[in-house]
Amino acid sequence: MNNIAIIGFGPFSQFFTPYITQNFSDVSVWNRSDKSEEAAKLDVKYVSLDEALSKEVIILSTSISFFEELLKNNAKIINPKAIVFDVASVKMKPVELMLKYLPQTCEIVATHPLFGPQSGKDGIEGKNMVICPIRTTKQICIIDFLANKLKLNVMVRTPEEHDKQMAYVQALTHFVARGVAGIKIPYTDQKTIAFEKLIDVRNLLAGDSDDLFLAIQNDNPFAKSVRLEFLNKLNDLNHDLNLENN
């Protein structure tokens, strides 16, 4: 794995790029809108999409909404011997699309870094990284790099196992945080630890894009049932309180 391309150079890619360049010297990036200045600041090459897709290692870091268009329109120019990673927050849908459109000779490893620019601002050592080895001969090498070079806690899952768990871990958490963010909570010095933790969660997720939120909610097939379970419980609680007050 001598050369690497990152397809999609948004906030997460820019945050994670220094960890890649610490270990690999030939790193290229491409983005739909011009990110050449951001690439220059991080000392990586800004290249055309055709060149990026010719690399030996391709990291797909685009929004899920663009994922199928990217693969479908460029399947014929992707390096047929490449190892392709994705870093999406859901796993079943991107895996399905990679298997559908990528050359059968490509290796496929789906990943989900369970951290980002906010939660990883003080470093990523000890943070969780999920990998789903879909079609690869390099699983041991990949785990070794992530665990021993980047010092991540690597968890091997199937795409379905990942999405089932993340429906609670991520979809529910982001749903609650968005709800809290929609309430104008006044400043108060009367604070409890529980309240501060609630505000911390809201602030931690405040910078997440609408695309990310929608992907977590709509592209995880298990998220809707978890949201409904939560909303039904809130309605039940509210109903019980109203009965108590009558």
Primary descriptors:
246 residues; alpha/beta; Rossmann fold; 2 domains; eight-stranded mixed beta sheet; 8 strands; globular
Helix content: 40-55%
Structural class, by secondary structure, is alpha/beta
**What percentage of amino acids are in beta strands?**
15-25%
* Secondary structure tally: strands: 8
Average pLDDT across residues?
94
Placed side by side, the strands forming the largest sheet appear as 3-2-1-4-5-6-7-8
Task: Provide the CATH architecture of the largest domain.
Answer: 3-Layer(aba) Sandwich
Low-confidence stretches: none
Quick recap:
By secondary structure, the chain is of the alpha/beta class.
Structure description:
It contains 10 helices and 8 strands. The protein is an alpha/beta fold. The chain folds into 2 domains: 3-157, NAD(P)-binding Rossmann-like Domain (Rossmann fold); 161-245, no CATH class. Helix 7 packs across helix 8 (193-205) and helix 7 crosses helix 10 (223-245). The radius of gyration is 20 Å and the shape is globular. The relative contact order is 0.10.
